Amino acid sequence: MEEKRQKMLLIVNPVSGKQLAAQYMLRMISRFDKAGYAVTACCTKKDENAYEIVKKRGEEFDLIVCCGGDGTLKETVGGVMELKKEIPIGYLPMGSTNDFAKSLEIPTDVMAAAELVVTGEPQPVDIGKFGDEHFIYIAGFGNFTALSYDVNQKIKNKIGRNAYYLHAVKDFFHLKKYHARVEADGEVFEDDYFYGAVSSSYSIGGMPVMYNLGVEFDDGLHELVLVRMFHNMEEAMGLVRDMLRKDVANNPLITIRHCKNVKMHFPEPTAFTLDGEFGGAPRDIGITVLHHAVRIITKKKED
Fold this sequence. Notes:
Helix content is 27%, strand content 33%.
């Protein structure tokens, strides 16, 4: 008697990866079929994103795989969180920065990532909750955080990550300070900030600034990063230097804490980005970690 095949839902964002994602679909399906999966493939549309597809059809499947950028993964995870059963997630990263994928050592080559879906194993991963919304690896405010959703998709498709850097140069001449009161597991910080985030990633915006700082993806904690506003060019250049050296923990402008619950208060509505997408502009917001909220396929752990 033939063994029953596991059912896979493959969700592809056709505009990601310089619009190459859809061109990989047949190769992806062929590899997954060869591995024994019965594959149902769907493309996201303007009126139906990955969240809506998963919420509508996800419970029919044993595995859900998404192909796209961090935003597509965020939508997929959000949909899985709404289902009545726990379903593992595979991720084929084809975004411009792929911060979270790199942190989890998921290959940025789409077919290598497809191979990992076949050979890897689901690992529990923490995600964040921002008010009533979920995020995968970052909720941030301040200068440059709007880059991901401000940069035109056509420009990102043409020049990839460099689109963010070009936009950042333009924004450098319009820097502002953000006053905030932040409570992190009972500890209170209040100041004028250049940037702030609650994250779970080695890199932010493609820059690997969080390496060697105790970042874990399944410990029930996220990393709070607060960067005080610099007052002169010497402080600004010191900040850039330490970021490039991956030595941000010793910079006097930067505060880093590993925490579970964060509350932020601002004197005026303040825009946030959640995994590269606009997350609203609250004055008061609570951010917490959902421990082992989903399982994402990564490399098998060595015994």
